[in-house]
Design a protein that fits this description.
With about 230 residues, the protein is α+β, with helices and mostly antiparallel strands. It folds into 2 domains: about 5-25 and about 60-185, Deoxyuridine 5'-Triphosphate Nucleotidohydrolase, Chain A; about 30-60 and about 190-220, no CATH class. The chain contains 4 helices and 14 strands. It has helices at about 25-30, 55-60, 195-210, 215-220, and strands spanning about 5, 20, 65-70, 75-80, 80-85, 90-95, 110-115, 120, 125-130, 140, 145, 160, 170, 175-185. Strands 2-3-14-9-11 form a 5-stranded antiparallel beta sheet, with no helix packed on it. It has a 4-stranded antiparallel beta sheet with strand order 6-7-12-10, with no helix packed on it. It has a 3-stranded antiparallel beta sheet with strand order 5-4-13, with no helix packed on it. The chain is globular and about 60 Å long. The model has no long low-confidence stretch (mean pLDDT about 95).
Length: about 230
């Protein structure tokens, strides 16, 4: 399957979307794999692995593609109001507070939004999830959304909030602003598990308990590929 990003800005040097697996957060790269840097089982038989050994976290960090800011943005507070300045392009727009007055992330300012200059096209039957880049420190948080990018392939903008209402400073060019994860649309129906399902889960837990290290990764994990 292919996902197509098209530069709609008429700015040939626009920062390109990147594989999430190529822009791993520094904190994650610097984290040791085991507590105390020792691959030794603990006294209760559990593994001393850190968050770096948690495959679900790795899968989240490396899922899909990252859109980054194509230019510097500066945030300031003056007279109780929030202002944005950007170095190039039409990079920031706004939604009024009234447009999302009950949103749990609302702040006492209009909602700024990243103006995204990349159109995104996915194959028939596939949509795209747009989220704040996972497990990354940031001064802002975008509001997540899903777009059917097989039928609508125009640029999708990213409403956000500045997490700290007193923040003043630079959001530098190249900052990850959105994680794009394509997925296939399917119909789902919920059901509750039976006793047979309980027994299956017990067997899974028993299987996990037979080894100290990389249990989930070696027994159950499936590699995800984004290119």
């Amino acid at each position: 399957m292919k996902i197509t990003f098209t530069n709609m800005s008429q700015f040939p040097d626009l920062e390109k979307p990147q594989l999430a697996s190529k822009v791993i957060p520094e904190w994650y790269k610097e984290t040791l794999s085991y507590v105390g840097d020792k691959k030794i089982p603990q006294s209760n038989g559990t593994s001393p692995g850190t968050i770096k050994k948690c495959v679900p976290v790795f899968d989240a960090i490396t899922a899909g593609y990252i859109i980054v800011s194509p230019a510097d943005v500066y945030v300031s507070i003056k007279g109780g109001e929030q202002f944005f300045y950007w170095a190039a392009l039409d990079l920031i727009a706004f939604h009024s507070i009234e447009q999302a007055s009950n949103h749990p992330n609302k702040k006492p300012f209009p909602y700024p939004k990243w103006v995204n200059h990349w159109s995104i096209k996915t194959p028939k039957g596939y949509s795209s999830l747009f989220v704040q880049p996972f497990h990354r420190e940031s001064v802002f948080t975008i509001l997540p959304g899903i777009v059917d990018t097989d039928t609508y392939s125009g640029p999708v903008n990213f409403p956000m909030v500045i997490n700290d209402t007193t923040f003043e400073g630079l959001i530098p060019k190249g900052t990850p602003i959105a994680q794009v994860i394509p997925f296939k649309r399917e119909s789902w129906e919920m059901e509750l598990g039976s006793q047979k399902d309980v027994e299956q889960q017990v067997n899974i837990l028993n299987k996990l308990s037979t080894v100290f290290f990389n249990r989930y990764k070696t027994m159950f994990w499936n590699k995800k590929e984004y290119k």
